[in-house]
Amino acid sequence: MSFKPWREVAIPHEDVLKGTFQQAEFAADISRVHDKQAVPEYQDPILFFQRTFITEGMRLLMDSVIKRLAGKGGDPVMQLQTAFGGGKTHTLLAVYHLSQGMAAADKLQGIAPILSAAGVSELPKAKIAVLDGNKLSPNQPQDRSGCKVHTMWGEIAWQLGGAAAYEQVKQADISGTSPGKEVLAKLLAAHAPCVILMDELVAYIRQFEEGKSLSGGTYDSNLSFIQALCEAMKAVPNAILLVSLPESEREAGSQRGINALKTLEHYFGRVQALWKPVATEEAFEIVRRRLFTNIKDTASVEAVCRGFADFYVANAADFPRETQDSHYFERIKRAYPIHPEVFERLYEDWSSLGNFQRTRGVLKFMAKVIHRLWKDGNNDLMIMPGSLPLYDADVRNEAIYYLPQGWDPVLERDIDGERSVTSDIENQRPVLGAGQVCRRLARTIFLGSAPDSSDMTTAKRNKGVELERAFLGSIQPGQVAGLYRDGLRALTDELQYLSNANGKFWFDTRPNLRREMEERKRRFQDKEDVYPVIRGLLQRVLGHGVFDGVHVFTTSSDVPDDGYLRLVVLSPDANMSRAGQNIAEGRAAEILKSRGEQPRQKQNRLIFLAPDTESIGRLKDQARAMLAWQSIVDDIKDMKLNVDQFQSRQSGKSLEESNEALKRMVCEAYKWLLAPMQEAKPGQGISEIKWEKFPLNASSGALSGEIERVMKDNELLILEWAPIHLANLLKTWFWKDGVKEAGALDVWQKMSCYLYFPRLKNEDVYRAAIVAGALSRDFFGLAYGKNGDKYDGFSLGRSAMITMDGALLLIEQSTAIAYEAVLKASQPEVVEPAPGVSQPGQSPSPTPVAPSTGNLDGAIAKVVKKKFFGSVNLDKIRHKLDFNEIADEIIKPFASRSDVGLKISIEISADSYSNDGFDENLQRVVKENSKTLKFRNAEFE
Q: pLDDT tens digits for 51-62?
């Protein structure tokens, strides 16, 4: 379903559209209204109530005022006390227009229901006295038709009854002393029904110095007057006093202001009625009425709001829990066309700033926002935090006006504007730029974090915005949260003033050490610094897995040419892509061709891993970033870099995140598996070497496991080999041209060399295929040598223990069957088992029998051997592998027999070629380990 953007449904007032509004127009000034000098929106009672939303607090207050003026009860004194910009003066104006009676009640929007609820059909016209503490001067008398009025009580008397009323308090006014509650009660009664409105009273009282007399009286006389006035109000049933006071001591100003506020709160506390300040949700309607004309297309409003609510429910994991409540739909409707998250941040966060007025500040800010969005043709469904045009100078200045110094470069560089990093990211990544993903996220985070970050002394500092709330202020129905996650990652990587911790994000005027990191990245060179980091990481990530050896960035001469399976990892400059020039193939071909100056023989034992051309640049950049963060962390520990505690923690966290990203990227970059191969058919020649390229899945999590999977799936590596495949290979390449047997070791060596043969994991797989084939009569026979036409140690269809040496022969099946028939015909008696071959029902024995003399007519004499001794020298490089083979092939057959006594000894001799001999550390380690392993002798000499 398509939704209409806000600009097609909600039309701003003309002054907002044209940008002709003035800051003063948002400031309700009761004295200007009383002097008939205000703009029509405040001066005309009908226009005033058309643009005024009657809040719950205002309704209760006017109900009390109506009852009081009608003589039906009500409170005599009401104190309006709330935060700066909380609607106090606006409420006083509502009472002013209601009481003045300049327009009939039925023409004042929202008033008729209040009159009806109070049981009053027609409100009597009241006399009104207005005192504005910002306008009155305690030491400058007011000229009233030739009469000098000095004090608050003189001003009230003059406004209520002119010169005649003033005469009642004239002496007290001239002397600056309070007239007392009796005089005031008579004055009020003579001019009732009456309303006295005092705005900014503390601003007036705090100008008096204790012990010093001014024309307006003294500090004490003014406080005495307030106390007397409150008492007098109780005595007159249709007189009412409304006073506005600041909520906090900070708004009271100086110490005299704080003292005056505490004293006034004490006096008013005796007789005051509670007044409920503007709630956040009531502000929705206040702002909408002041900034927008009446919305008539309610169906479109309903559709858009329902679209948002349903979108939040359908993607519950991506948004705050509050959006899942059914009431959130109603909240969106009340706030439309402004998203409730805008109000939430401005009223909850920004109102904590000392000079930000709750309602007036929101009106001023949003008027500029709406004007710019309308001018730019913004087509968002609602005005969201992510919609705020912080690129506009007026909007930006309005925002940073309330913040400490230092926010302008944050907005200009990191958040919004043509030269901002967010714009650069979106230009480089069109998928993010299409929806202004980065800018919307940055604006949202700024709106939710700037007030917290600006106050360095409070516990709220750097409270930040959760991921879900960043999404709430940015994403519209139909958009994908995954795209915004990508955008947020890009912001975290690129922005200088954006910080994150504990799942929250915020902007701050202090750089997040990213600039320092970016500067340090330039210090590191590819081959000297970056390649060793990538090499070490690859060695840890790859391990060995199915390979006998992994060689990372190793030269051709350092890659052994033996029968072991090896993975050769090419350096970052030997990269490849699916299309285009592939440097990797050329580099791999060089290693495959030779080992240093010598031709390479065992070519079929090498597999290559190459980096991706498009990803390797990001990997190298990430390695530089990790090195830069490491150097920053080291310098902080060594006190070479002066940072605060938070930045120190963040640098450590950034290093951890950089290391994690590096691990991720190395799997993404090294994504190409290269396998050399050749095609060959008997009699048709062998093809040139070709390279099979297989992409790896970077998201698999384990690079070594993914390499093994790809090799298995594509038969680049065989872990289990059936004897039929071995028999077929023998028939094709070895049993031909009259040759009926092949050396087992020779076959394995050729399989290790030639690229057109299958690639087995190791010799054990080959040996297992021979063992499995030996049990059957369908594949091949075995022998341990050939003497003329005779096979020594011949075996067919019997279990065999295989020794891989040059003597073992694999005999073509038909030849083996024919030879067996000859043996049976010529030697019907018991045939002695071949060396290493057991008869059915017997355990294998490594003890060989004497080889045949070739005389098949006579019985073969059996030599009894009852003792075995063997010694061998192990290679110092592959000693562990050699010893494992000895244990499996020599020791195990003896140990498996209950009738064999076995004794194993190990003799180790090591010579130092150094003039200084073995160093002390080596001696200590060897002695300690020898003792732990229970060596009988372990001495150095």
A: 788 888 788 888
The string of DSSP codes covering 755-820 is TTS--BS-HHHHHHHHHHHHT-SSSEEEES-EETTEETT-BSSS-B----STT-EEEEHHHHHHHH
- Structure tokens that stand for 268 in this block: 């008013």
* Cβ neighbours around 325 below 10 Å, total: 13
Angle between helices 645-669 and 531-542 (to 10 degrees): 70
Tell how far CA 359 is from the center of its chain: 34
Percent of the residues in the chain that have a pLDDT greater than 70, as a whole number: 89
Give the three-class secondary structure for 867. coil
Residue-wise pLDDT for 851-868, tens only, equals 443 443 443 445 677 778
**Cβ contacts of 22 within 8 Å, gap of 6 or more:** none
CA-based max dimension of the chain: 159
How many Å apart are CA 800 and CA 812, to the nearest integer? 17
Residue 174 pLDDT exceeds 50: yes
- CA 874, distance to chain mean position in Å, is 54
- In the sheet with 741-743, reading across from the earlier edge strand, the strands are 741-743, 809-812, 780-783
Alpha-carbon span 835 to 792, nearest angstrom: 9
Closest residue by Cα to residue 900 from 888, 912, 891, 913: 891
Average pLDDT taken over every residue of the chain: 85
Respond yes or no on whether the N-terminal peptide bond of residue 337 is cis (omega within 30° of 0): yes
Alpha-carbon dihedral 433, 437, 439, 442, rounded to 10 degrees = -150
Q: Do residues 383 and 397 make contact, with C-beta atoms less than 8 angstroms apart? A: no
Lowest mean pLDDT among 7-16, 99-108, 422-431: 99-108
- In this structure, are strands 194-199 and 239-246 parallel, antiparallel, or unpaired? parallel
Can you read off the two tokens belonging to residue 379?
């087509």
Edge-to-edge strand ranges of the sheet holding 606-610: 549-552, 566-569, 606-610, 672-677, 690-695
Q: Whose CA is closest to 547, among 700, 705, 689, 323?
A: 705
Selection from 452, 369, 342, 429 nearest residue 421 by Cα: 429
DSSP string, 226-271: HHHHHHHHHH-TTEEEEEEEESSHHHH-SHHHHHHHHHHHHHHHTT
- Dist. CA 320–CA 467, nearest whole Å: 9
Residues 430 and 445: beta-carbon distance below 8 Å: no
CB 668 within 8 A of CB 615: yes
- Looking at 236-357, list the stretches that DSSP marks H as alpha helix, in order from N- to C-terminal side: 249-252, 255-269, 280-291, 298-314, 327-335, 340-348
Phi then psi dihedrals of residue 117, to 5 deg: -65, -30
Question: Which residues, 6 or more positions from 391, have their beta carbon under 8 angstroms from its beta carbon?
Answer: 416, 417, 418, 420
CA-to-CA dists, residue 419 to 158, 415, 427, 428, 450, angstroms = 61, 10, 11, 13, 21
Q: Which helix (H) or strand (E) holds 47?
A: helix 45-50
Q: Which helix (H) or strand (E) holds 674?
A: strand 672-677
- Output the CA torsion sign for 24, 25, 27, 29: positive
- Tens digits of residue pLDDT in 885-900: 787 778 877 776 767 7
Instruction: Give the C-alpha separation, 576 to 613, whole Å.
Output: 5
Smallest CA-to-CA distance from 463 within 657, 247, 283, 646 is with 646
Cα(658)–Cα(743) distance, integer angstroms: 55
H-state helical runs in 670-762: 703-713, 723-733, 744-753
Tracing tokens 């993975």 back to the chain, one arrives at 567
199, HSE (Cβ side, Cα atoms, 13 Å)? 23
Kindly state the DSSP code that residue 916 receives in the 8-state scheme. Answer: T
